[in-house]
Amino acid sequence: MGTDFRAAISEILEQRTGEYTKISDTIWGYAEPRFQERDSSRIQQEYLKSRGFSIRADLAGEETAFIAEYGSGKPVLALLGEFDALSSLQQEADQVTRCPIEGKDNGHGCGHHLLGTASLAAADALKAYMEENHLSGTIRYYGCPAEENAGGKAYLVRDGYFDDCDIALTWHPYTMNKVMKGGFHLANFRVFFTFHGISSHAAGAPELGRSALDAVEIMDIGVNYMREHMIDAARVHGAITNSGGIAPNVIPSEAQILYAIRAPKVTQVQKLFERMCDIAKGAALITGTTVEIKQVAAYSNLVDNETLDNLIQENLEHVIPVGFTEEELAYAKKFQQVITELDKEGLKAIAANIGGKEKRKELLETPLWDFIVDKNSAYGGGGSTDVGDVSWVVPVGHVYTNCYAAGTALHSWQAVAQGKASVAHKGMMAAARVLAYTGAELLMKPELVEQAKADWKEELDGEVYPNPLPKDLKPSVW
Hints:
Blueprint: H1 4-15, H2 17-30, H3 38-50, E1 54-59, E2 62-72, E3 76-82, E4 86-87, E5 106-107, H4 112-133, E6 137-144, H5 147-150, H6 152-158, E7 167-174, E8 178-179, E9 187-196, H7 212-226, E10 235-242, E11 254-263, H8 266-287, E12 290-299, H9 306-316, H10 326-336, H11 341-364, H12 387-391, E13 396-402, H13 413-417, H14 422-444, H15 446-460
Parallel strand pairs: 3-6, 3-7, 7-13
Antiparallel strand pairs: 1-2, 2-6, 4-5, 8-13, 9-11, 9-12, 10-11
Helix pairs in contact: 1-4, 1-14, 2-3, 2-4, 4-14, 7-8, 9-14, 14-15
């Protein structure tokens, strides 16, 4: 197999770039939150159906989930896409000051409008290349809802939609170009602890009341003490979602706290969760209340795959640098000037980690990082992704491409503002090329698929998917 396949696939993508850009920008405008991405899902389904893909929709209890499929037989190659937005991040495009869009509540601060579109584009280009070259195999685009806060892919995994896949590929918009290795993301549970007490007048009859808010506060104190006795890499974050009311003279009968529980492995999160359940029960016992515990999401850790990492790295080297114009560099520089002081400090740390003393200053003066970061570099991480759940049942390859000014934080209005810029579009199409090139090699070299599977089994070392979602849990908006 020569290198002509890359040129052929690149030409297909180039011819359709305008269509992909329009889809991405349209989804940016929809900005629909988890499990409500109806228009975003529809526009992708309509496009892929027009390209000859068969569509299965409304999967695993997720109205907006779908699979677009072409081909037959092995290997079955999955391309993962997302399209959900984030709440309270509405923002005008290209504006370097906070400019919420009137009538909008959400914004694409994590780049999922780009993410889903690039994976769709890769599937589209692969189909065309397969037809032209009479290649066998099956390609699927997975339209995955609710990556943010709900872990939509975990439901698809639980219900068996990846059981016959051989390989899955995905990407994420970021501020650099890099193979994403498994250790950079943490497993994560989201759990509500709701306490029920007895309301009474706080002055007239305090002895009759049992404060649910006291229970929440005591639980949070217990969790704080637990932090000393958990591994350094674990994280627990809490938000009181119901304080029981605003009247200080009324003992609250109900109060609630939501926790995100993270650790490098899903089995470690499970143990922390069990300890926190005991703390909650203790808080209820102390306060004379009862507690209702509801887990609403679970993200497993990413299982790394050396074969896919190396294959993606090779194809990334055929795509980067993309070549940014002087206008694009100036655009990015404007956004670097309006990121938060904490993000500026974070950028300094990342630049030092990646470039060392010699190149740190140069990197800080470069608004767009149009180079490949060493895939073994440790530069932070600490977030979570439901791609991890997929990686427990099928080998997964994952890549970042640069779509934002260096230092831009995801989940920020600054990221939303840059989401329709030419820089973001270039990063999106770079990702589409990497995914499509990698997919083509896997289709044409079955030995790579088998090698990736062998790596996957070795990495798991006998462990099986712990399926962290409760069996009776259904996707829901909360």
